Amino acid sequence: MTSDSTASGSWPGAPAPHTAGPHTTGGHLPQLQGAPVRLIASDIDGTILSYRSAQTGVLSPRTVEAFHAAKAAGIVVVLVTGRPVRALRAISETLANLGPVVASNGAVTYDLYRDELIASDPLSAAALFQTKDLIAGLDPQVTFAAETLDHLHLEESFARGSLWFDEERRRAVGITDEELRFGPLDLTLQRDSLGSAVTPGAEVGRRHVSDSVVKLLAKTGAHEPDAFLSEAQRRIGQLATVTHSAPGVSMLEISSRGVNKAAALQRFAAGLGIDPGATIAFGDMPNDVEMLRWAGTSWAVGSGHPAAQAAATRVTASCDEDGVADVIEQLLDGRLT
């Protein structure tokens, strides 16, 4: 793991974890079950952002207002998502420059305000290529992609039919040609001296420790999503963490073993002196399960996956009905028990 001191709280409005005041005492913070709520952790796609709006990133005005109000009340707000960092800037700005975000299913924690890496847990090259071979053995039709901090490596068969393969659509959502590397992963990635799989020739500045792979993607049309996930977990669970987050799409999201949203959120919260009991969380898909279980109180949206609803403490209205905003409004108004 790589890290710096950003987790101690240095973005606009960040609480100082060891100073007196409402951020640490909870004296003026909204209460839930008699205890202050100090941290809101929320997934994005399918939770606060409709899947219909995923490419535009346009949140509903009610959701934006609710998150602004939570931040104004002194609650730390952190987005915890499967998205890469580069797909979070506009959403973070809409929600009043949140600062740190947990991205890539917990493999990356990044301060968007300072534009600096806080922590990352990349896949080793050995685990990545062994995992890739095992999944290919499960389904010869599977196609692969790999995410780094700055690049997306894509087999052409993975990209075909998607916005990544269409130059006009890519540019419309702000994806540059420089970010993409097309071709078999065995050719577009190389091993570095530390054993990570990295983008060859990538310039790494002060913000990034390396341009190493933080998430491997595997997609097929031959299996139902949950069945594909279950079989992959059986085959590669000792090598890596595998989950999925795209409803109706058989696409695995694979991270270094032990990496998930809960582990990264726990590390972030601990840096602020915040425990699970002072945290509420929101999610909708299997990649949210660990986070929903970790938080003191959690909600799955009514439109969410059954696994997320089973893991959460409670269920709110659907994403399209602004279920998360409804919970935050009730919390801030003192109507939530």
Termini separation? 38 Å
Task: Quote the average pLDDT.
Answer: 86
What Rg is obtained from the alpha carbons, in whole angstroms? Answer: 19 Å
Low-confidence stretches: 1-13, 15-26
Provide the spatial order of strands within the biggest beta sheet. 11-10-9-14-16-15
Largest sheet: 6 strands, mixed
Number of helices: 12
Instruction: Output the structural class.
Output: alpha/beta
Proportion of beta-strand residues = 15-25%
Shape: globular
Report helical residue fraction: 25-40%
Q: Tell me how many strands there are.
A: 19
Structure characteristics:
337 residues, alpha/beta, six-stranded mixed sheet, five-stranded parallel sheet, disordered N terminus
Can you give a write-up of this model?
This protein is an alpha/beta fold. It has 12 helices and 19 strands. The strands form 5 sheets. A 6-stranded mixed sheet has the order 11-10-9-14-16-15. A hairpin with a 2-residue loop joins strand 2 and strand 3. Helix 2 runs parallel beside helix 12. It is globular, with a radius of gyration of 19 Å. The N terminus is likely disordered.
Question: What's the arrangement of secondary structure elements?
Answer:
Elements: E1 2-3, H1 22-25, E2 31-32, E3 35-36, E4 39-42, H2 61-72, E5 76-79, H3 89-94, E6 100-103, E7 108-111, E8 116-120, H4 125-138, E9 143-148, E10 152-154, H5 156-159, H6 167-172, E11 180-182, H7 185-188, E12 190-191, E13 197-198, E14 213-219, H8 225-236, E15 240-243, E16 251-256, H9 261-271, E17 279-283, H10 289-294, E18 297-301, H11 306-311, E19 314-316, H12 323-332
Parallel strand pairs: 4-5, 4-17, 10-11, 17-18, 18-19
Antiparallel strand pairs: 1-8, 2-3, 6-7, 7-8, 9-10, 9-14, 12-13, 14-16, 15-16
Helix pairs in contact: 2-12, 4-8
